[in-house]
Amino acid sequence: MPALFAEPLTLRSVTIPNRLFMAPMCQYSARDGYPSDWHLRHYSERALGGVGLVVVEATAVSPEGRISPADLGLWSDGHARAFEPVVRAVRAAGCKIAVQLAHAGRKASTYPPWMGKGGVPPAEGGWEPVGPSAKAFDEGHSVPRELAPRELEALARAFGDAARRAVEAGFDAVEIHAAHGYLIHQFLSPLSNHRTDSYGGDAAGRSRFLREVVRSVRASVPDATPVLIRVSATDWIPGGWDVEECARVLAEVREDGLDFVDVSSGGLAPGAKTPVGPGYQVGLASRIRERTGMPTGAVGLITTAEQADQILLSGSADAVSLGRLLLRDPWWPARNLPADRRRIPPQYLRAF
Ligand SMILES: Cc1cc2nc3c(=O)[nH]c(=O)nc-3n(C[C@H](O)[C@H](O)[C@H](O)COP(=O)(O)O)c2cc1C
Known about the structure:
By secondary structure, the protein is of the alpha/beta class. It has a single domain, classed as TIM Barrel, CATH 3.20.20.70. Helix content is 32%, strand content 16%. The protein has eleven helices and 13 strands. The strands form three sheets. It has an eight-stranded parallel beta barrel with strand order 3-4-6-9-10-11-12-13, surrounded by six helices. Strands 1-2 form a two-stranded antiparallel sheet. Strands 7-8 form a two-stranded parallel ribbon. Helix 3 (149-169) packs parallel to helix 6 (208-220). The longest helix has 21 residues, at 149-169. It is globular, with a radius of gyration of 19 Å. Flavin mononucleotide binds at residues 23-26, 57-58, 100, 177, 179-180, 230, 264, 299-302, 322-325. Flavin mononucleotide (FMN) is lined by residues 23-26, 57-58, 100, 177, 179-180, 230, 264, 299-302, 322-325.
C-alpha cells in the first residue's frame, strides 16, 4: 500500500508533492537580516533530499522582532531580493517553499543559543524588546516596553508587507508564527497579556492582534497563495492558553483566510510541564483538526516512516513536519518515500 506521506497536498493553487514538511528552524546565521551562503546550502540540501515543503525559519517582519541579532528578516525589498537564490534553489529541486513570518516580542534581542543566555545588551548590538505588557519572559531577559495600539496597527502592516515581499521573492506560501511564546502568542495567552484595552481581556481581545495580522497578510498576497499559521496549542501551564481556547479562536480566525495550521506547543513562560516524548504534540493537532475542520500539521519527535504514516492514516493530521531529524539526515525523505514517489536528483540516482 502506498504510504500516505507520499501523497500530494494541495493548498489553494499550490500542490506540495508529499506530506513531509521541513519544520522552521532558526540558523542564527544572518547578518542584518540577510540570508547567507549557509542558508542557501542548508535549505537547498534539504530540498534535494526530497522533503515536500521547506518552511524557512522564523524571519522577522521588523528589526526589533528578531529573536537574536543573527536572525533573518524581510523588512525591506532588499531582503526580499536576497532570498531569491534560496527560493530558486529549493524550487529547482521540485520542492515548495514557505517562509515563517515572525516577531519575537519580549523574547527578542537574545543571544544565539551557542553564544550565551538571556538578553543581549545594547552595547553588544541588542535592543529594548516590546510586548503586550511590561513583564519579562524570565530572569536575565529585559522587561519589554508595552506596545501602544497604533504600534500594533503598524506591526500588523509589517506582517502584510513582509508577506508581499515573500511572494515577490518567489515563495509559494507564508506561515504566520503565532507559537512558542513570541509576540502573537504573548497576546493570546492570559499569562503574558495583562492589557486592559481592546487587545487584552477575554479571548476576543487577546486574539485581536492575531486577527489583524491574518487580515493584513491575506490582503497582501494573491488569492492563490496559501497562508499557514503555526500555533502553540497550549502553554502547558495551568491557567494559561489551552487547546480548547486555541481551537475556538482558530475556528473564527480561519474565516480571515487561513489555509493550514501547524500545531506546536509551549514556549510562553518558564515552568511549563511539557510531556516530551515520541509524537507528543500529535494529540493537539488531532484536536485542532477535529474542532476547526482545518488542514493540520503535526510536529515534534516524529522520527520513523511508520509513525508519520500512522499520524496521517488515523486522521490526526494532514502533514507531518520533521525538524531535528532533517538536520541530522537531509536524505531521510528520499530513503523513506516509496521508490515510485521519491524525488532523487538524476545526478545521484546511482546512490539509491
Ligand atoms: C535549531 C532549532 C531551531 C528552531 N527554530 C524554530 C523556528 O524558527 N520557528 C519555529 O516555529 N520553531 C522552531 N523550532 C522548533 C521546530 O520547528 C520543531 O517544532 C521542534 O524541533 C520539534 O520537532 P522535531 O522533534 O522534529 O525536531 C526550532 C527547533 C530547533 C531544533
